[in-house]
Amino acid sequence: MSIGSYKRTSLNETSDKEPVLAKFVKALHNSKPLIGGGSVERPEDAEAVIQSGATLVGIGRELIREPKWVQKVQAGDLKSIRYELSPFELDELRIPLAMQMYLKDSFREVMRFTTDGDPQTSYETELAPMEGFEKKL
Fold it and tell me: CA 48 to CA 76: how far, in whole Å?
C-alpha cells in the first residue's frame, strides 16, 4: 500500500484522524502481509510504519536520493544519508536521462531537490501528485 504519506488520514471524513494504513492493518487482521509506504524518508518514518502494524516498509523516492539508505540505517550512519537531491547529482547516481526528466518535471513536488526553495507538502491530508488524480479547481 503506497500512498502520498503513510500518515494519511481520511480525505473524505476530515474529522477521522486514524491513518488509512492503520485501517488496512485492522481490516487484514494479520491474514496477509502488508507493505506500508508513502513519504517514508527517515529511519523514524520506517519505524512508525512497522509500529502501525505493517509487515514491511516500502521506500521509493528515498532510494533514488540515497541508494545506500538501508545500509546506512543498518550501520547507524544516519548523518551521511542524503535527504535532498541536487539536480547535478542525477548523472552521478546513474539515473537515466528519461527518468531525470520525469523526476524534474512530473515528480518535482515530492523529490526534495536542493534547488527548490518552497517547503514540501506532507500529503497527510491531501493527494500527492503521483497518486494519479488531478486536482479539480
Answer: 17
Same domain, residue pair 28 and 65: yes
Question: Within 10 Å of residue 32's Cβ, how many Cβ atoms?
Answer: 9
The whole-model pTM stands at: 0.81
Q: Name residue 2's beta-bridge partners.
A: 37
What is the H or E stretch that residue 58 is in? strand 56-58
Confidence of residue 46 (pLDDT cuts 50, 70, 90): very high
What's the rounded Cα separation, in Å, for the pair 128 and 79? 28
Helix (H, G, I), strand (E, B) or coil at 108: helix
Q: Look up the domain containing 88 and give its range.
A: 84-118
Sign for the pseudo-dihedral over CA of 43, 45, 51, 57:
negative
Task: State in Å, rounded, how far the first CA of the chain is from the last one.
Answer: 27
